[in-house]
């Protein structure tokens, strides 16, 4: 396909002769009634976003789609090549005038020699024959000149086409090189991103294992707290029973002591209270001898009531403190259980989001891991404080058991004998 043919095809497509080919020009020039077919041809030749086809775009489209012109009218792509048919008839007539056999033209050397010999004897011919010979030679020369000009024009067109193709190839090569460089850069970026994602994935996997280990340790601590809570609850129940039994025994012992004292001393309750108050004040002021004080300490049938009441009161206070601390521990265990569930949910969410490769998801994972570390630190602190509280409760429990009063043997002496 020559450049001249492309120009003729483009000029033929330009129906309204405005030096631009539009969709309507293609429909009218090619007599196409199907809009889809016309649109397909137009989009094959026109760049994206353009409303008209330029000659350069037309040439590129034809180069990219060599069979595209087959769908156009064949009248627009008729080649105009020079013909040598007239030259053959002129040579035949010239040979006939010079009396040269026409078959000898197959041998070029003999033909040239015969023509040269006859031209030397041209003076012997008539004027009309000479004029006719000159006319045929002139026609022959002009035909050869036209043929030579057409060949030169064809060569020029071919050179122009080659230059055009070379320009297109160079542009395509530059575009390909730019695309290759861009692809290489993107490939390096993707490789670096992949390496970073691999590194982040390994770090997250390590963090996940640490969090999972901490979660297991927290579950063990939670089980330990629950077990200690149950043990303290059982011991608390035993203490309640012990205090009730002790209160019953104290009531019975106090009543019997009061009855016996009244029988021995013959004092009224008013006198009994006065004597007891006097004895206690003398003990506090150290006016009683050591022996008498010892008798008084071992013979305090009625004075033991206030001591026992004080012990019971202290035990009740200790018990109330234990109950309050147990309630606090119970609340802390509930909080730990709630935080434990939150950690499990967050770890599940983190393991699910580890599969994704989005930058925003990676930032969210870092924030989640930071919050998880803070929460684990808080839970560890709460656990240590709870453990210390349980240890204090155990210590106090041992102390309370040690402070249970031991009833001394009744002395044969009465504290009121000191005042007789």
- Judged by helices, strands and strand pairing, the structural class is mainly alpha
Termini Cα gap: 153 Å
Relative helix content: over 70%
Given the structure, what is the number of helices?
11
Please outline the major beta sheet.
none
What global shape is seen?
rod-shaped
Average per-residue pLDDT, rounded, comes to 68
What's the oligomerization state?
Answer: single chain
Alpha-carbon Rg, integer: 62 Å
Organism: Stentor coeruleus
Protein name: EF-hand domain-containing protein
Coiled coil: 166-235, 312-346
Keywords: Coiled coil
Description of the molecule:
This protein is an all-alpha fold. The chain has three domains: 3-77, EF-hand (Recoverin, domain 1, Orthogonal Bundle); 85-192, no CATH class; 196-419. It is built from eleven helices and no strands. Helix 5 packs antiparallel against helix 7 (127-265), helix 7 packs parallel to helix 11 and helix 10 runs antiparallel to helix 11.
Any descriptors?
Recoverin, domain 1, 3 domains, 420 residues, mainly alpha, disordered C terminus
Q: Summed up, what is this model?
A:
This protein has 420 residues and is an all-alpha fold. The protein is 77% helix and 0% strand.
């Amino acid at each position: 396909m020559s450049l001249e043919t492309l120009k003729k095809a483009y000029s033929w497509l330009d129906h309204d002769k405005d030096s631009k080919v539009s969709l309507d020009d293609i429909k009218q020039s090619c007599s196409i009634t199907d809009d889809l077919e016309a649109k397909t041809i137009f989009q094959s030749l026109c760049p994206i976003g353009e409303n008209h086809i330029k000659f350069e775009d037309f040439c590129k489209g034809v180069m990219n789609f060599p069979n595209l012109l087959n769908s156009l009218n064949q009248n627009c792509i008729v080649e105009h090549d020079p013909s040598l048919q007239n030259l053959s008839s002129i040579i035949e007539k010239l040979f006939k005038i010079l009396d040269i056999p026409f078959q000898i033209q197959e041998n070029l050397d003999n033909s040239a020699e015969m023509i040269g010999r006859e031209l030397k004897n041209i003076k012997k011919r008539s004027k009309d024959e000479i004029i006719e010979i000159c006319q045929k030679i002139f026609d022959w020369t002009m035909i050869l000149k036209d043929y030579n000009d057409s060949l030169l024009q064809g060569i020029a067109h071919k050179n122009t086409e080659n230059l055009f193709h070379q320009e297109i190839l160079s542009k395509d090569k530059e575009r390909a090189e730019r695309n290759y460089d861009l692809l290489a850069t993107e490939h390096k970026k993707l490789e670096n991103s992949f390496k970073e994602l691999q590194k982040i994935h390994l770090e997250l996997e390590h963090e996940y294992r640490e969090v999972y280990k901490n979660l297991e340790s927290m579950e063990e601590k939670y089980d330990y707290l629950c077990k200690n809570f149950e043990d303290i609850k059982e011991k608390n129940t035993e203490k309640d029973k012990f205090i009730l039994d002790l209160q019953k025994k104290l009531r019975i012992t106090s009543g019997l002591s009061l009855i016996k004292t009244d029988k021995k001393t013959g004092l009224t309750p008013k006198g009994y209270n006065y004597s007891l108050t006097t004895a206690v004040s003398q003990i506090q002021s150290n006016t009683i001898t050591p022996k008498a004080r010892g008798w008084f300490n071992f013979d305090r049938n009625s004075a033991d009531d206030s001591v026992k009441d004080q012990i019971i009161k202290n035990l009740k206070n200790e018990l109330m403190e234990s109950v309050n601390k147990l309630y606090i521990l119970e609340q802390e265990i509930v909080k730990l259980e709630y935080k434990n569930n939150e950690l499990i949910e967050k770890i599940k969410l983190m393991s699910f989001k580890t599969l994704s490769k989005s930058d925003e998801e990676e930032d969210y994972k870092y924030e989640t891991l930071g919050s998880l570390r803070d929460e684990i630190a808080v839970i560890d602190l709460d656990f240590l404080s709870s453990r210390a509280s349980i240890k204090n409760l155990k210590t106090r429990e041992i102390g309370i058991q040690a402070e249970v009063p031991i009833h001394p043997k009744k002395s044969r002496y009465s504290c009121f004998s000191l005042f007789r």
